[in-house]
Design a protein that fits this description.
Length: 153
């Protein structure tokens, strides 16, 4: 009976025995099975700081991007080819019904502002779209040639 107790005790101890792991960064032994690093210091090493020069204004900085500020990053010149492409896309958008409605809404707002009145908004009727009414599928038999309808299965 003593042998059984010691055998069981050894099994329990073997289950909870700590296994050592080697840190990938520094090579030290550690017991954390969830991480391949021994500490926070190894897991998140400090960033290397490099002094850079902003291409826009020439200021020296230590920030992550190439520009020193958002102002310098957002101020860029557009090429004539890019401007023509953007203009063409906007003109195409204004030919669509959504573009026409947006343009009309903007012009109503500006004209109300110029007169000194408060803009009242757009009524639902101005943006209402008629929904087509579908009759029974038998009216569209010529579209379903060669196909079986669900009711005929």
């Amino acid at each position: 009976m003593v042998k059984i107790a010691t055998k069981r005790r050894k099994e329990v101890l073997a289950r909870y025995e700590k296994k050592t792991y080697i840190c990938d960064r520094c090579g030290k032994a550690h017991y954390n099975a969830k991480s391949k690093y021994c500490s926070e210091k190894c897991a998140y090493p400090p960033k290397v700081v490099v002094e850079k020069e902003c291409p826009k204004c020439g200021a020296k900085h230590f920030k992550e991007g190439i520009h020193c500020s958002l102002k310098c990053a957002n101020s860029h010149t557009h090429s004539d080819e890019g401007k023509k492409h953007q203009s063409k896309k906007i003109q195409e958008y204004h030919q669509t019904p959504e573009g026409q409605a947006t343009r009309a809404k903007a012009s109503n707002f500006v004209s109300a502002m110029n007169v000194g009145e408060e803009y009242q908004g757009v009524s639902i009727e101005e943006f209402a779209v008629s929904v087509p009414v579908f009759h029974e599928l038998r009216d569209y038999d010529e579209f379903f040639e060669g196909f079986q309808k669900g009711e005929n299965w």
